Amino acid sequence: MLCHDSPRTFPPSGSGYSDEERRGWSLFDWENLGVAVSNSYGNVDKDGRKVILTGATGFAKPGEILAIMGPSGCGKSTLLDALAGRLASNARHTGRVLINGRKTRPTYGTMAYMTQEQALTWTLTVKETVYYSAELQLPKLMSKSEKRERADRIIREMGLQDALNTKIGGWGTKGLSGGQKQRLSICLQLLTHPKFLLLDEPTSGLDSAASYHVMNQIAKLTRQYNMTVLAAIHQPSSQVFGLFDNLCLLSSGKTIYFGPTHAANQFFVVNGFPCPSLQSPAEHYLITINTDFDEGLVNGKTCDEKAIELLSESYKSSEIYVGVQHEISVICQQDGDPFVKKGSMQASSITQCLVLVERSFINMYRDIGYYWLRLGIYIALGFAVGTVFSNIGYGFGSLHARISMLMFVSCFLTILAIGGFPSFVEEMKVFQWERLNGHYGVGSFVISHAMSSMPYLLLISLIPGVIAYSLVGLQREPEKFIYFALVLFTSMILVECLMIIVATIVPNLLMGIISGAGTQGLMILSAGFFQLPNDLPNVFWRYPMYYISFHRYALQGLYKNEFEGLKFPEYLGGPPTMDAEMILKDVLQIEMGYSKWTDLGILLGMVFVYRAILFGTIKITEWLKPIIRAFQLSCMSGN
Ligand SMILES: Nc1ncnc2c1ncn2[C@@H]1O[C@H](COP(=O)(O)OP(=O)(O)OP(=O)(O)O)[C@@H](O)[C@H]1O
């Protein structure tokens, strides 16, 4: 069996750590950790709970790699999630998790965690992705060239230099392979040399040579920067296995072995499962503890639940387990450094905003579904509106046509923002992943997204606006057209923000599209067109919907803009006796106590309010999640 070059003493010699050793500590320990989920199917107990992990005890130390291994579904990811404080909402954990000997709940940005699901901006190249991430994550005192140097080095170390200018790919565009994406995700996590690095299957999708190179680089950085690394790993080769300091073997949620990698072989020998001479130890352990298949035969012994039970009991009565407990008790007696966020070590908020604006702008430019597709549809609709209402004129019939045309433009064009929803969801996924890993703050995201989308929103409101306005023949004064375009532009900004708020609350694509369309439908219904304002039922529709629907201000502004100054001939042709302002007030029940500019002002004010709501929604969601979880857990334990 291949072992690490310099095996560490285990249990530790002496009873404590020196001050030098404790400086910059990053120490994990967990005792009797159990995880159960509710609302699950399959083997559940009488309370409907399924136990995923039970009695897990262990630790992870700086400068060392702990490998978590076991058959698929044994609870490796669940253990990492529990340690990172990222369990699913239906999961409850028992037992104790300490960081630096203190009970701390890991929050945003306190550790780097590469989950199995990658969230990468698919339109960017490898180089762009790592460069932008370096600018976001690395300290403000570091120069741009130093950041790029580090990014280049990490790209090289992960063997991605040949794919430097390859786009990540997605949505039917093939870019990086699965293994390359995996390595890119590792690059992003390694940029800052984080104190805690959790990797869920870092070598999946990689061939054995690539797996070794990647893990070897991680091992080097682990020793060089004293990082504490935990990696859930499938089927490592002997070479890769030799890089690990400690091993945690799980089977059906039970710990079969936790201790130094080099002592595992002896443990299996003692328990009657010696490793065949030509087999890799890691492979042997995994075959031995896999109970998923009937034919599991190792050295003539069938590996069933009983064998697992035997190994688990044997481990609990072994000296190795005593050693683990001793190590944990030593750790707990130490007064470790408090666990701090890395915020102070990052780029300034202004730099983060500028980098995010640039990155988001490029993504919007390259993702056809973000704006370009909509622009095409808007142009087509601009022509459609222009031809249906062409040369509207000033006859009595034009009164109704004007009202309908303005209604269609202000409501239907904005409702098409739903078309960009898939892109919003993708962007939110990246944001949420980067946020969890503490790459930047919520404020930087909200401001940068608003700024990067402005040019595109101006484009998609102006071009179809010009087409529809000129073909229909609305009032010719430039001031009237500018107002028309400004209302369209502001409405686009608002609807865009509304959809991102929906994507924050409902990140599921289909549910988000339905929720977004439903919300807009309610706003349009209460805008005062389909039912006149005074006829809207007071409860809900008038108060508050009529007052919070931005479509109402857009519609009123557009009506005032178009009708003010016009006179219509009476039906059957006669002298111009119908004053348009009278029509606005008496027929359309428009509030004439203030000018159209006030309507536009309200819309602009709403832009800030909506962005503040987006900021608040993200913050509240982050704040509420642990509270809801705690409430769910107390309900579960009350069962
Ligand atoms: N939130 C959850 N709700 C219901 N079941 C869950 C939940 N989380 C995990 N499980 C179940 O717990 C078991 C362990 O899952 P986990 O993802 O930890 O396994 P794993 O060892 O990481 O597997 P793999 O190696 O295939 O990724 C699986 O059967 C999974 O379906």
Automatic annotation (TrEMBL):
UniProt membrane topology term: Multi-pass membrane protein
InterPro entries: AAA+_ATPase, ABC2_TM, ABC_transporter-like_ATP-bd, ABC_transporter-like_CS, ABCG_dom, P-loop_NTPase, Plant_ABCG
Keyword Transport: yes
An annotated GO BP: transmembrane transport
Transmembrane regions: 371-394, 406-425, 445-469, 481-503, 509-532, 600-618
Region called Disordered, residue ranges: 1-21
Organism this protein belongs to: Lactuca sativa
Domain ABC transporter intervals: 35-277
Keywords: ATP-binding, Membrane, Nucleotide-binding, Transmembrane, Transmembrane helix, Transport
A GO MF term: ATP hydrolysis activity
Top-level taxonomic group: Eukaryota
Similarity comment: family membership: Belongs to the ABC transporter superfamily. ABCG family. Eye pigment precursor importer (TC 3.A.1.204) subfamily.
Location(s), subcellular: Membrane
Single GO cellular component term: plasma membrane
PANTHER family: ABC TRANSPORTER G FAMILY MEMBER 11, LIPOPOLYSACCHARIDE-TRANSPORTING ATPASE
Name the UniProt record assigns to this protein: ABC transporter domain-containing protein
PROSITE patterns per UniProt: ABC_TRANSPORTER_1, ABC_TRANSPORTER_2
Annotated Gene3D superfamilies: P-loop containing nucleotide triphosphate hydrolases
